[in-house]
Amino acid sequence: MKLNRLTNRIWVYPYEEERDRPNLSYIRGDHWSLAVDAGHSAEHTGAFYTALEEAGLPLPKLTVLTHWHWDHTFGMHAVHGLCLANERTNRHLKHFRKRLEEEGTEFFFSMDGRIRREYADGRPVIVTPADLVFRDEILLDTGNCPIRVFQAEAPHTDDSTLIEVTEEKVLILGDSTGGAFPDWTMDPSLAEKLAATVGEVKPEICLTGHWAPLSPEVIIQDLLEGNG
Predict the structure, then answer these.
(1) Could you tell me what percent of the chain has a pLDDT over 70?
(2) Model confidence, pTM
(3) Any bridge partners for residue 63, and if so which?
(4) Higher-pLDDT residue of 184, 215
(5) What stretch of H or E contains 73?
(6) What pLDDT sits at residue 228?
(7) Contact 151, 138 (CB under 8 A)
(8) pLDDT tens by residue, 175-200
(9) Could you report the per-residue pLDDT of 88-104, keeping only the tens digit for each?
(10) What's the per-residue H, E or C state across 112-178?
């Protein structure tokens, strides 16, 4: 699978339904590069890095997590550089790691058949917390490329982080627009709050975790209609 170039500074390693692998984003500044989400496993992360190297792009120095769910974070132990998460995301990761230590992996594999496919052939499940933790909002600049990383209320989880690449007019939403796992119920009030946030940011392109890039108008309409 190859990288797709989204804008002058942003590339996307595309999602894959078979193993529930989300989009992994890459943002190149003049001084250093940043990735969004760490991947479902070390294998997923490695495939992403191979694609970066084939495109002649340096590996990221920082990886920002959109939320704690396994498909976005369980490749953290294999990332290049450091990982950044909000406080809630880090707490969820530590809790899930403890549960795996106490209960083993079967409950995790039974959550979704695609997880079993990702961890076929006895691949280990390794959960690590973030290296860096923020609260509310943090502003980064990778070199003439300002990036706003901020927490937002959203229907999918209680720890959603959004990434605004300001001058590229791109908003990376992770899975925040979806309903809550495992029954995918959509809280209308949280959907409305997220729709308002997208409207306030005014991006030209929105990227969710498991779909192609969309316009903000489509994202807002889907949220308000309860489709995620």
Answers:
(1) 99
(2) 0.96
(3) 35, 83
(4) 215
(5) helix 70-73
(6) 42
(7) no
(8) 999 999 988 999 999 999 999 999 99
(9) 999 999 999 999 999 99
(10) CHHHHHHCHHHCCCCCCCCCEEECCEEEEECCCCEEEEEECCCCCCCCCEEEEEHHHCEEEEECCCC
Residue extents of the structural domains in the chain: 4-225
Task: For residues 132 and 174, give the distance between their C-alpha atoms in angstroms, rounded to a whole number.
Answer: 19
> In sequence order, what are the beta bridge partners of 116?
none
Instruction: Give residue for tokens 């903000």.
Output: 216
Note whether 83 and 38 are within 8 A (CB).
Answer: yes
The residue that leads in pLDDT, 25 or 226, is: 25
DSSP tag of 60: P
Q: What is the pLDDT of residue 192?
A: 97
- Say how many C-beta atoms besides its own lie within 10 A of residue 129's C-beta: 16
Q: Please give, one letter per residue, the 3-state secondary structure of 1-30.
A: CCCEECCCCEEEECCECCCCECCEEEEECC
Q: What sign has the CA pseudo-torsion 59, 177, 68, 140?
A: positive
Average pLDDT (151-168) is 98
CATH 3.60.15.10 at 4-225, yes or no: yes
Q: Decide the pairing of beta strands 82-86 and 62-64.
A: parallel
Q: Does the bond joining 182 to the residue before it have cis omega, within 30 degrees of 0?
A: yes
Alpha-carbon distances, residue 3 vs 23, 52, 75, 112 (angstroms)? 10, 7, 18, 26
